Amino acid sequence: MKRLAGLIVLALSILLVALFSSPLSTQQLGHTIYVSNSDPACGGRSPCYATIQAAVNAALQGDVIQIQAGTYPEQLSIQKNGFAGASEADRIVIEADPSAQPGSVVLTGSAGPQCTDKFAIRLKQSKYITIRGLAITGTGADAISLMGGNN
């Protein structure tokens, strides 16, 4: 019985050492950034941005951008994680709020004056970017445009 108790204590000690000595950085864990063009407080969640582009500009490696239901008349220019050594841990996720109804987060893009200006999302020299759950409409050409480098 004493031997079993000793083994349990040893196992718990090893588990605690493993948990608390793990070299996780805040970059690897990331943060959630919220976007709402109708609620300046994002339902009490923060940080909260009124535009998707402002949230993209503020995003760091590993962050998740959650967009609340609404129509967003924006052209997103994304240039993130273009550095040597970028990895899966650096992935930035841009997604519709998981509690939003499908199709309720709409990015309208821009018809633009020229063919090259007609897009909703432009990824330029970016790696490890996920875009999920956005309805894209009204761009006049490309919904998502990839430019240069390591897209």
Topology readout:
Elements: H1 2-20, H2 26-29, E1 32-35, E2 48-49, H3 52-58, E3 64-67, E4 70-72, E5 76-78, E6 92-96, E7 105-107, E8 119-124, E9 129-132, E10 135-136, E11 142-147
Parallel strand pairs: 1-2, 1-3, 3-6, 4-7, 5-8, 6-9, 7-10, 8-11
Sheet of most strands: 5 strands, parallel
Specify the oligomeric state.
Answer: single chain
Number of helices: 3
Low-confidence stretches: 3-28
From the spread of the alpha carbons, the general shape counts as globular
User: How much strand content do the residues show?
Assistant: 25-35%
Mean pLDDT: 81
> What's the helical proportion of residues?
10-25%
CA radius of gyration: 21 Å
Class from secondary-structure proportions: alpha/beta
Structural overview:
This protein has 151 residues and is an alpha/beta fold. It is 20% helix and 28% strand. The protein is built from 3 helices and 11 strands; from the N terminus they run H-H-E-E-H-E-E-E-E-E-E-E-E-E. The strands form 3 sheets. A 5-stranded parallel beta sheet has the order 2-1-3-6-9. The protein has a 3-stranded parallel beta sheet with strand order 4-7-10, with no helix packed on it. It has a 3-stranded parallel beta sheet with strand order 5-8-11. The longest helix has 19 residues.
Summed up, what is this model?
Helix content is 20%, strand content 28%.
Structure characteristics:
11 strands, 28% strand, alpha/beta, globular, 5-stranded parallel β-sheet, 151 residues
